[in-house]
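Sequence in, structure out. Go.
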Amino acid sequence: MTSLPLIFDAPRKSMPPRHLADLSETERRAAVIELGEKPFRADQLSRHYFSRLNNDPAAMTDLPAAVRSRLGDALLPTLLTEVRHVETDQGKTRKTLWKLHDGTLVESVLMRYRDRLTVCVSSQAGCGMACPFCATGQGGLNRNLSTAEIVEQVAAAARVAASGELRGGPVRLSNVVFMGMGEPLANYKRVAAALHRLIEPAPAGLGLSQRSITMSTVGLAPAIGKLADEGLNVTLAVSLHAPDDGLRDTLVPVNTRWKVKEVLEAADAYAARTGRRYSIEYAMIRNVNDQRWRADLLGELLSGRLAHVNLIPLNPTPGSPWDASPKPVEEAFVAGIAAHGVSVTVRDTRGREIDGACGQLAAKG
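Output:
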């Protein structure tokens, strides 16, 4: 069995200071008591941060000024500083480059659709999966993000949405996808805690629907099983990219540890536990994985499974030999999968002209 230590062992880097969003309700009250305040101050802070989307202690005027300063310094440190953002789709898509406390760069993308507002968040700075067609994978893994650094990306998106800065006026954030930088399930403990902060009713959390959250993974089979045991009903998305082990070993190196069969069995178990269909993410790469026979093989593999295929036109990275499949090839691939009775769609791509692929903006700094 091939050893892949980078999958789980992030470099030992300085993690950010403790933040309210790192803590459960019980832990918040304990932290406030440690600071010499009454437990109800934790509820006040939570109400400001999660319900009112306010992360500025100075604006929390229902707290005495001295309390604001003390609790703000201890529990609401600045985690993300915007370096810049770029927009496309007539202002309906915004990609933001964030600098963390240690100078590390990560990205998030806010996308407004007709029926929803979605933020795509990062779970790691960089990625250790080493998928050769991915800008983030090419850069390697820097470190895991903290629970609060993940949650703050979502809260920041909710603030932008509520402010009306996106074209179309104020709107409530509805969906979160863990498809930004990093492999979420390789940062399992912090990502799982972030999920709870996102779905817990306000003021304990942001009160988002579990069904509106998508967890993407390249196929860490044991972690998929662990997620199934969390008691959550988030949508699982498996980045497969090839139906055969020979090619997937190259495109998704973690496949040398967990083969296609084992990954699909883990996804099936997740679907059985939650009753929810999972998604197979498949980047269409010209002359690499887009042959009609691979469409037929993928259709055969998924026939009868509670799965949906989401084909993704590849967003090429500068200097990369990988390119998107031509439209006729893509259409033939769709037909090949559908012929086996498997549901298949092509993703609505966003942000190509603003370095939309994960890691492209961060690579430019």
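Check: The two ends are 37 Å apart (CA to CA). The first strand starts at residue 81 and ends at 88.
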